[in-house]
Each structure stands twice: as C-alpha cells, then as structure tokens.
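Quick note —
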Amino acid sequence: MTPLLEPKAGRSARPRLDEVDHRLVELLATDARRSVNHVAELVGVSRANAYQRIARMRAEGVITGFTVVTDPHRLGLEVAALIVVNSDQRSWRELRAELRELPGAEYVALTAGGFDFVVLVRVADVETLRDVVLERLQAMDGVRSTQTMFILDEGGRLSW
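Predicted structure written out below.
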C-alpha cells in the first residue's frame, strides 16, 4: 500500500457501535441532561450497562463532550452568514486555526470543490459582520478570496 493510502499513524480503528450505543448517543444528543437511569430505561438496558457503554464511548472519543443548545436570536445574534473562503493551499492548517478564532465563528470546515473553507458566523448586526469579513478575514495571510451568503431562514435545527 502506498504511504498516502495507508491510515495515518496514531489513528485508532473506528469503534464498533451497536444499536444500543447509537440509541444512547441519540438520546443524549437530544438532551444531555438526561440521567443515566433515564436513558437506560428508555433503551431497555440496566443502569450499569448504560453507564459502562457511555464511559466506553467517551474513552473511545465517540462522545467528546456535553453541551447546551442555544437560540442565537435570544442571545442577540441576529445575523447569520455562511462565508466561503479560497485560500493558499500551502497554509491551510494555519488558516483553519485562524478562522476558528474569528469573532462569531460557530463552525469551520475544510472542504473540497469550488472553495477551501466554509465558515458559519453569527453576530449581532450587519456592521459587525462587515468588520469580521473586511477587517479580520481579509487581513488573514493565506486568504485569496471570500464570498458571504446571508442566512435568511434556518428552518430549525436538527438534533441527530
């Protein structure tokens, strides 16, 4: 096998998850405040079994944390935009790190196709978005061009 086709060193095999594991993750993804007793009952396993499975999935990196889902508008983040970025190919790692630090950046993805990155930004107003794009983003080394798309309606969040 050629070096580019071999798995990267240090990457472990993908954990094998069964239906019970998937159901536990689904329940916790919709409400991470559920008790282990409650999710065990909903899945139909013992509390000890559910606890062991959740602990194993945390150790394997399947579950990486627990979080709160918020309503951006109620937080005063009235403007949402997707910004696509073309970059200098040699500096993508450094640029990815900088993009994560943009004010209001909620999501950053390296992509293939017409653009190199997609960034979801949420800010209070259009003036703040202007500053993020024109003063911060355009000043970053490695940024060749950007395109900004305002999000008019998100249609609700998907939980799983």
